[in-house]
């Protein structure tokens, strides 16, 4: 309790069990009990969670199960080895059809992180141009998961509002010990979508399309960005953006993650 990691800001027993069971840096991984973890293993796990939860997230929500993360290959100290991606910032000057495709992928990824079969709601506490990456096949992934928080929609959080926050021995190494946290109950499913509309999409889509299309896109982007306290407004703005951007994509080998399927189905 009290770890500075955004991932454990709103903990549940189900999430904690998943971390222990899927933590791959120990022999006999797979048990929800911590008997197979030595004191050193426990300390390493706690320290990793406190300093950077990215490698833990990649282990407990692997890409082979459909989660939008790069594959975790291993780590040594603070060095994490995973598949290479290009950061989203590299695509700010991309062709209009590429920008439209990436914007639609961003929406799809964030929707899947808010609504999925396991009933975990993932939200970002911070976003920048390096948070997302793109593989060579054009597929967009979450490149840096260290600022992801998780809320268990099935069990809810074990922390109640007003409950005392206890500081672990690592908390003050990475953040201000007096930092105020947002209540778990106040985070909505539109939270990350609003952040993307504020921080990333204006740079990705700026000046990409002829008028009046660009004006329409900019208008709905602004509605989305202004909708932090209006979930319905955000949803409607996103729906309109998807409607506008979908016809602007192209179907060719640059988008290998959906080509040639896109030639035969509107789904792609």
Automatic annotation (TrEMBL):
Describe the location of the FAM69 protein-kinase domain by residue ranges: 46-226
Presence of the UniProt keyword Signal in the record:
yes
Q: Describe the family membership recorded for this protein in Swiss-Prot or TrEMBL.
A: Belongs to the DIPK family.
Listed name of the protein: Deleted in autism-related protein 1
**Keyword line:** Secreted, Signal
User: Looking at the keywords, is Signal present?
Assistant: yes
* Top-rank lineage group of the source organism: Eukaryota
Q: Where in the cell is it found?
A: Secreted
GO CC terms: extracellular region
Pfam families associated with the record: PIP49_C
């Amino acid at each position: 309790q009290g770890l500075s990691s955004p991932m454990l800001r709103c903990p549940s027993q189900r999430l904690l069990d998943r971390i222990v069971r899927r933590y791959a840096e120990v022999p006999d991984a797979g048990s929800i009990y911590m008997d197979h973890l030595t004191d050193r293993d426990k300390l390493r796990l706690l320290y990793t969670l406190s300093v950077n939860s990215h490698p833990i997230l990649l282990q407990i929500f692997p890409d082979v199960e459909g989660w939008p993360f790069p594959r975790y290959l291993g780590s040594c100290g603070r060095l994490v080895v995973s598949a290479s991606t290009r950061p989203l910032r590299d695509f700010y000057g991309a062709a209009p059809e590429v920008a439209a495709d990436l914007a639609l992928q961003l929406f799809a990824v964030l929707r899947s992180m808010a609504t999925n079969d396991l009933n975990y709601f993932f939200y970002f506490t911070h976003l920048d141009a390096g948070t997302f990456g793109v593989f060579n096949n054009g597929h967009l992934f979450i490149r840096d998961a260290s600022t992801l928080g998780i809320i268990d929609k099935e069990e809810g959080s074990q922390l109640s509002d007003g409950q005392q926050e206890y500081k672990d021995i690592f908390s003050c190494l990475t953040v201000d010990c007096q930092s105020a946290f947002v209540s778990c109950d106040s985070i909505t499913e539109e939270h990350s979508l609003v952040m993307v509309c504020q921080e990333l999409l204006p740079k990705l889509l700026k000046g990409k399309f002829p008028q009046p299309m660009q004006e329409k896109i900019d208008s709905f982007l602004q509605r989305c960005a202004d909708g932090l306290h209006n979930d319905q407004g955000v949803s409607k703005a996103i729906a309109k953006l998807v409607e506008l951007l979908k016809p602007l994509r192209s179907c060719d080998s640059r988008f290998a993650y959906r080509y040639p399927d896109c030639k035969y189905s509107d789904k792609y």
